[in-house]
From TrEMBL:
<dbReference type="InterPro" id="IPR015231">
    <property type="entry name" value="DUF1934"/>
</dbReference>
<dbReference type="Pfam" id="PF09148">
    <property type="entry name" value="DUF1934"/>
</dbReference>
<protein>
    <submittedName>
        <fullName>DUF1934 family protein</fullName>
    </submittedName>
</protein>
<dbReference type="InterPro" id="IPR012674">
    <property type="entry name" value="Calycin"/>
</dbReference>
């Protein structure tokens, strides 16, 4: 794959949220169609999440122990992630814009250029407006469309 060739992919997101009582509050598998590409040693996955409220355009970027989650639509999010660090971000939704911070425990990515499939794992604790909202474990499984 040349650096900016976009590959049409299916993106299966397996999202697990753990609340402050250490209970798994939600495990959600969800599949969307999107694109995978590589640029400047970074992996990018772009896809649209569609629900009853509309469409949210999502971009996941992973490079050298760092990641970025960007979402734009009826909810918006800009959350940088750096392993073993706490990073400030923002979230905007029905209740307005809020400050976020994430302490990241795991950022892993694997891409097999021959099989044209791979995965991204992100694991972090999220605070919104200074309040702990949960521990999130996200796995994006990426396969050819």
């Amino acid at each position: 794959m040349r650096p900016i060739d976009k590959l049409a992919v299916n993106v299966l997101l397996i999202s697990k949220a753990i609340d402050e009582t250490e209970k798994v509050t939600k495990t959600t598998p969800k599949t969307d169609n999107g694109y995978f590409y590589m640029k400047n040693d970074a992996l990018y996955v772009k896809f649209d999440e569609i629900d009853e409220h509309g469409t949210v355009h999502t971009l996941i970027k992973v490079s050298n122990g760092k990641a970025l989650i960007q979402r734009k639509g009826h909810v918006s999010m800009n959350q940088p992630l750096v392993k073993n660090e706490e990073m400030a971000g923002s979230y905007s939704g029905p209740y307005g814009e809020m400050n976020t911070s994430a302490k990241t425990h795991k950022i892993k990515a694997l891409w097999d250029s021959h099989l044209k499939q791979g995965w991204i794992q992100l694991n972090y604790e999220l605070h919104v407006q200074g309040q702990y909202v949960g521990h999130f474990d996200l796995t994006y499984q990426i396969s050819p469309y």
